[in-house]
Design a protein that fits this description.
277 residues; alpha/beta; five-stranded parallel beta sheet
């Protein structure tokens, strides 16, 4: 790696680096469970966690001058800003699945204009997709309907009550219109196919002069990010693991839950050290 060239570390957040209490998947006896650090509070309640070991490793990784750490999430900007990760503030962050590029916490307006123009040219409108969701979803299992940053839509559902046939039909309908459907816990996302984390990460790599990109993620919406990286990891849980998804350069970890998040940060650190040799 050329002297002074940074390594870009782009990671999904929820169920990759940080975990709700329901997603921790602690499988050891309580007395030997790892100590946890709360990294997100919402409505005065603790919401997301890392192990204390993972927090220390992340702080060390992000403080390294050779690393550009880029949180890369499907969350909106408002939802992302509830999170307080260890280490220095990230100079870049990617929200809304690539629709928002934050530079020192401020949305890059030129990037948003470019994204909006591409969506208008390449896929069905958000209004059409949102209307289809509302018309076909059964109110008995829908708890919330949301639009994220005027870019994509999602439902919060009682997952066990959602018919698999409905998900399959929605997926086929969306694909024909240039959209992707992703199931993440109790949320069903409908996202424009051109709206990708990888495109935003490539833009950050261009701006920073990064010569290598490392990435991690657990869901279908992370697949393009993992494929675009020089080296990537996915945890042993999540949408990609359930589908037994694999690709060259992507390591499928056996760890699940919050322990997978800790292992991912270890892998990032080891790869950065190796690239710096």
């Amino acid at each position: 790696m050329p002297t002074g060239s940074p390594v870009l570390v782009a990671s999904d957040l929820d169920r990759t680096l940080i975990y709700s209490s329901a997603a921790l998947a602690l499988s050891v006896p309580d007395p030997v469970a790892p100590r946890l650090l709360c990294v997100e509070v919402h409505e005065s309640k603790p919401l997301s966690f890392m192990t204390e070991t993972a927090a220390g490793l992340l702080a060390e990784l992000t403080a390294a001058p050779s690393v550009v750490f880029v949180p890369t999430t499907t969350r909106t900007r408002k939802q992302y800003q509830r999170i307080s990760l260890p280490g220095p503030p990230a100079p870049y962050a990617i929200c809304a699945n690539g629709g928002q590029l934050l530079v020192d916490g401020v949305p890059d307006r030129a990037w948003r204009r470019a994204v909006s123009a591409r969506l208008a040219a390449e896929c069905a409108s958000l209004e059409e997709v949102q209307q289809h969701l509302l018309a076909t979803a059964d109110p008995s299992w829908v708890r919330k309907t949301r639009v994220a940053d005027d870019l994509f839509a999602y439902l919060v559902v009682e997952r066990a009550q959602v018919p698999e046939e409905w998900i399959k039909a929605l997926t086929e309908w969306a694909e024909a219109r240039g959209w992707t459907v992703s199931l993440q816990g109790r949320k069903i996302y409908a996202v424009p196919r051109p709206l990708t984390k990888s495109a935003a990460v490539r833009e950050v790599a261009r701006r920073t002069g990064a010569v290598a990109t490392l990435a991690a993620g657990d869901s279908l919406l992370d697949a393009d990010l993992l494929l675009a990286a020089d080296e990537a990891w996915r945890p042993g849980h999540g949408e990609l693991a359930d589908a037994r998804w694999s690709a060259p350069g992507v390591t499928a970890l056996t760890e699940t839950g919050v322990q997978a998040g800790e292992e991912i940060i270890r892998r990032f650190g080891a790869a950065v050290a190796r690239l710096g040799e």
